[in-house]
Amino acid sequence: MPKPGTVTPEDCYADVCEQVEEQRKNDALGLEAASQEFQTDPLLPALDDLKAQKEAADARIRQQLAWAREFHGSRPYGLEELARHAGYSPSGIRTAYGEAEIRQVATQIGREPNRPRRDTARGSR
């Protein structure tokens, strides 16, 4: 369940909790049905699928951070604000993305970053 204060706007918190609970029930029912239908343990393939979804979400977050820091307007988004919303530390924002993500964003939006890239610990990931 999401923690209180993490859902915006706050009056949607109860709805989000209800959606999470419904998704949990659906996941459990799906696992039970798959187990009965195929007489196999569906947990491991379900975990593989969730891992792939998590990796895809992480990749999207890194691209969004690259855009926010390298392509946004005349000034990049601040490290503190991005860290708060992305679940990183401010120093983690600096190293969360690299040249690969910058190139992906540049290709997607059809232009180069606003300023030359400074070296980071992450390098050309």
Structural notes for this entry:
The protein is mainly alpha-helical and 125 residues long. The chain has two domains: 1-40; 47-119. It is built from five helices and no strands. It has helices spanning 13-38, 43-70, 79-86, 90-96, 99-109. Helix 2 packs across helix 5 (99-109) and helix 3 crosses helix 4. The protein is extended and about 55 Å long. 10% of the residues are buried. The model has no long low-confidence stretch (mean pLDDT 86). Residues 112-125 have a biased composition (Basic and acidic residues). Residues 105-125 are annotated as: Disordered.
What is this structure, in a nutshell?
This protein is mainly α and 125 residues long. Helices cover 64% and strands 0% of the residues.
